[in-house]
Amino acid sequence: MLMTLVLTRSYAGNLMALLAVRHISEPYHSLREVLDDPSVTMVWLKGSSVGRYLTEAESGIFREVGDREKEGRLLWRTQAQFPNDIDTWVRRGTHVLMEVHYGLKMSLGKDYTKTGECSFYESKEEFLPLIFAMVGPKNSPLVPAISKRITSMTEAGLFFQWLKTEEPNSTVCYRTPTKVTVKTSLSLTNIWGMYVILAAGHLVSLSVLCLELLSLHLKHTGIK
Predict the structure, then answer these.
(1) 116 in the Ramachandran plot: left (φ > 0), alpha (ψ -120 to 50) or beta?
(2) Model confidence pLDDT, tens digit, residues 10-45
(3) What is the DSSP string of 90-125?
(4) In angstroms, rounded to a whole number, what is the distance separating the alpha carbons of residues 11 and 25?
């Protein structure tokens, strides 16, 4: 009876924890993890400088990424095709979108605005950063003046403010927790394990009873 009480309390505690805390899977946090998984396909921006770099890289991890195109694990898509790709391929978990940081924030924000929940996540590892700049004539007095104003705008956070103005939910899903607390009513779909254990317990008890009856019968008939 003591053992039954301990097992019952333990199972009840684990069941309540399982129902209350939901674990969100995030299998890809680095480019290496994506490359090592043969079941996932990468989606890159078509016609970008990154795409040209991948095709021209002669060694390293980006050479491996370029080689995946021959295996059918690398697709080139346009910016206009990204929303549909996210809502289909990426949502099913068969594809991973490779995009610049601001582009990912916009995509996550738009999906949150549409669905009301964070369905996607960004990897913790960032790679191949892009530096945008304005090109001016050499030794031109305009270059220092423009550089000073661009630096002031960056330090003031105007770029982030413009991003948030264009998509208010762009930062809602940034670094979302992998464990969330949920509230749900009990139903047969979330407590079916209790009935499975109950049925298994009755089956084991019935098997033990049959063995005892068989042993008693063999004992009375003199068969060992």
Answers:
(1) left
(2) 776 666 666 666 677 888 988 999 999 999 999 998
(3) IHHTSEEE---HHHHHHHHHHHHHHHSS------S-
(4) 24
CA Rg value for the chain: 29
Per DSSP, the chain holds a count of helices (H) and strands (E) of 10, 5
Neighbours of 95 (CB within 10 A): 19
What's the CATH code, domain 20-135+167-181? 3.40.190
Q: Is the model's pLDDT at 96 over the cut of 90?
A: yes
Residue 1 token pair: 């009876």
Mention every residue, 6+ apart, whose C-beta is less than 8 A from residue 14: none
45 neighbors 99 (Cβ within 8 angstroms)? yes
Q: How many CB atoms lie within 10 A of CB 96?
A: 20
**Cβ partners under 8 Å of residue 150, min gap 6:** 134
- Kindly provide the b/e burial profile for residues 60-74, where b requires at least 16 CB atoms within 10 angstroms of the residue's own CB: eebeebbebeeeebb
Residues 157-192 pLDDT 10s: 887 788 788 888 888 887 777 766 666 666 677 667
The pair of three-digit structure tokens given for residue 136, joined into one six-digit string: 């001016």
| Domain locations along the chain | 20-135+167-181, 189-221
Contact in structure between 95 and 42 (CB atoms under 8 Å): yes
pTM value?
0.63
